[in-house]
């Protein structure tokens, strides 16, 4: 078998006395959608941070696209094709939606030590940015200041920014967090489209979303992956049910 | 529309500055020539600080260090008989830029209060270095025998010197205007508002912030070179932390992140100093409340109150 796109071994991180990730092993194959679930405080966001490069692991290795990226910064990993969205919406609120995405395009269009030409007039930045906005369904909202977009739209904007970096793998930290039913459905529809063309790793609490999207589920409890497999197998796994799923699954 | 109003405001403002020498000559008040030249020199320093403070969000509390380096880079060669302005001013910008590179490389690894304190500490180190070097005047400083020489352009002529400073200010603002709207400026501004996001989309923000820091330092060095020509004197007090504070106040008063605002800030600051210090040495009793009012009620500073002044750059 070919090497997985993302391969994590023995990833460990502690914050003082708190063990956030405790020897995580994880593989993501090109083209699949992996959902990471787990109770609050299981270390999911820390794990995303470590994969994206914003949190330095204490131990362990991360291989991505056939190379060891453990020592690379978050910005360097972005150039290898790792993109992320944040659990708490992270956008440039004062800039328009289009400006937000154009920045992401700019980050991947050579260096930015350019001091003369107005960036907002550069078609090379604006056109791909507009295309990414259209793709996530924000084409009509391009010139609206990002801070005044509705919550769901801001989450879509995050996805557009990630897409604009032309990633090989998208790390999505709770993409439907804080959304209403309708917004959430729209986001699931969008992610379902992206599944066809991208490799996705998503952390999510909403089990409906997880079962709607995931090819595979990994269960993280106290910083360890206690189970990993097809959604049906995870749903039936007694250890997972005991540790976490129980109620929510029987409700379905 | 806003940008047209801004164009009017700027035209009127710079026309007024260009006419100061005429007014000074007609009224036989050469003092105003001196005062306004001094304002424009500090305006250059304040604009350079605004690039990192207002646009980049880097609260550097040591900007006077670059002024000081620029001043020494003029006075020391002059002391040894090198009077070429080209040499002196190039040296001023290069050395100040180099100092900013070192100071920035260290301090930009921190943020918030630590950043403020480290930049302050570096400036104070240079200040104490200045007062301890006896050969170059130490505490007392030293007189500049002759202003920087630029061939036929004679800075000893106060009118020539005035228009040289005005010209440099205009060129600086024009370049600054291009810079902040170009890719580089967009990166600097966005890194201020959300740096983790910038890194996540692939910007190695540190190198851009450091470059902005170096540019601001080099321009600060130019302001220092002008300042020592203005006063015809070198003193380590150019590097004192209160001077850094003054420049910061000019930026805040005029309008952080507005590019042109700090020019207004420098003019108002020095005008207040000039008018009020005639009555009392405690003239800052008036400045303080004014600053508080501006910070509370005028988000873009005094510049924001002018027609078109809410335009960023």
Structural commentary:
The complex is a heterodimer of chains A (252) and B (313). With 252 residues, chain A is of the alpha/beta class. Chain A folds into 2 domains: 1-81 and 168-252, Rossmann fold (3-Layer(aba) Sandwich); 90-166, no CATH class. Helices cover 38% and strands 24% of the residues of chain A. Chain A has 10 helices and 10 strands. Chain A has helices at 44-52, 74-80, 97-107, 123-135, 151-164, 181-197, 207-213, 231-236, 238-243, 246-251, and strands spanning 6-15, 18-28, 33-37, 59-64, 67-68, 82-85, 169-173, 199-203, 216-221, 224-229. In chain A, the strands form 2 sheets. In chain A, strands 6-7-8-3-9-10 form a 6-stranded mixed β-sheet, sandwiched between helices. In chain A, a hairpin with a 2-residue loop joins strand 9 and strand 10. The longest helix of chain A has 17 residues, at 181-197. The two termini of chain A are 36 Å apart. The model of chain A has no long low-confidence stretch (mean pLDDT 93). By secondary structure, chain B is an all-alpha fold. Chain B has a domain at 29-241. Chain B is 71% helix and 3% strand. Chain B contains 12 helices and 4 strands. Chain B has helices at residues 2-26, 30-55, 64-79, 85-107, 112-132, 158-181, 183-193, 195-200, 205-231, 241-254, 261-276, 284-297, and strands at 142-143, 149-150, 153-154, 233-234. In chain B, helix 3 (64-79) packs parallel to helix 5. The longest helix of chain B is centred in the last third of the chain and has 27 residues, at 205-231. Chain B starts with a helix and ends in a 16-residue tail after the last helix. At the A-B interface, helix 2, helix 3 and helix 5 of A face helix 6, helix 7, helix 8 and helix 9 of B.
């Amino acid at each position: 078998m070919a090497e997985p796109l993302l391969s994590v071994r023995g990833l460990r991180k502690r914050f003082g006395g708190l063990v956030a990730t405790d020897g995580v092993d994880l593989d993501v194959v090109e083209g699949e959608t992996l959902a990471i679930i787990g109770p609050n405080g299981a270390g999911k966001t820390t794990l995303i941070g470590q994969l994206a490069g914003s949190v330095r692991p204490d131990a362990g290795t991360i291989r991505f696209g056939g190379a060891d990226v453990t020592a690379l910064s978050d910005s360097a990993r972005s150039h290898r094709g790792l993109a992320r969205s944040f659990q708490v919406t992270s956008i440039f609120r004062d800039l328009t939606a289009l400006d937000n995405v154009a920045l992401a395009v700019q980050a991947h269009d050579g260096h930015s030590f350019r001091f003369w030409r107005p960036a907002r007039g550069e078609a090379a930045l604006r056109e791909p940015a507009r295309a990414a906005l259209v793709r996530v369904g924000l084409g009509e909202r391009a010139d609206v200041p990002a801070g005044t977009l509705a919550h769901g739209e801001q989450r879509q904007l995050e996805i557009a920014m990630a897409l604009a970096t032309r990633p090989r793998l998208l790390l999505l930290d709770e993409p439907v967090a804080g959304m209403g039913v309708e917004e959430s459905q729209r986001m699931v529809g969008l992610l379902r489209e992206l599944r066809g063309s991208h490799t996705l790793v998503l952390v999510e609490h909403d089990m409906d979303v997880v079962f709607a999207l995931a090819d595979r589920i990994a269960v993280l409890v106290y910083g360890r992956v206690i189970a990993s497999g097809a959604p049906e197998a995870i749903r039936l796994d007694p250890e997972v049910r005991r540790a976490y799923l129980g109620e929510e699954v029987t409700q379905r | 529309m806003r940008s047209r109003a801004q164009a009017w405001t700027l035209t009127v403002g710079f026309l007024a500055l260009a006419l100061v020498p005429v007014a000074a000559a007609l009224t036989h008040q050469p003092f105003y020539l001196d005062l306004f030249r001094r304002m424009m020199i500090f305006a250059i320093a304040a604009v350079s600080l605004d690039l990192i403070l207002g646009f980049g969000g880097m609260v550097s509390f040591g900007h006077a260090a670059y002024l000081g380096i620029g001043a020494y880079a003029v006075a020391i060669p002059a002391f040894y008989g090198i009077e070429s302005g080209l040499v002196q001013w190039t040296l001023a910008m290069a050395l100040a830029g180099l100092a900013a590179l070192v100071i920035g490389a260290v301090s930009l690894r921190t943020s918030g209060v630590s950043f403020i304190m480290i930049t302050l500490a570096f400036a104070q180190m240079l200040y104490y270095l200045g007062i301890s070097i006896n050969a170059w005047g130490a505490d007392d400083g030293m007189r500049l025998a002759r202003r920087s020489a630029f061939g036929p352009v004679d800075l000893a002529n106060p009118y020539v010197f005035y228009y040289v400073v005005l010209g440099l200010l205009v060129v600086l603002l024009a370049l600054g205007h291009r810079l902040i709207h170009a890719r580089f400026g967009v990166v600097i501004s966005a890194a201020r508002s959300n740096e983790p996001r910038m890194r996540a989309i692939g910007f190695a923000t540190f190198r851009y912030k450091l470059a902005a820091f170096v540019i601001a330092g080099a321009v600060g060095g130019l302001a220092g070179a002008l300042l020592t020509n203005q006063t015809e004197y070198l003193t380590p007090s150019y590097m004192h932390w209160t001077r850094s504070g003054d420049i910061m106040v000019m930026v805040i008063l005029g309008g952080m992140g507005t590019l042109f605002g700090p020019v207004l800030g420098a003019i108002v600051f020095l005008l207040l100093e000039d008018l009020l210090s005639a009555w009392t040495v405690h003239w800052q009793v008036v400045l303080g409340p004014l600053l508080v009012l501006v910070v509370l009620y005028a988000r873009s500073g005094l510049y924001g109150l002018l027609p078109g002044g809410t335009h960023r750059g």
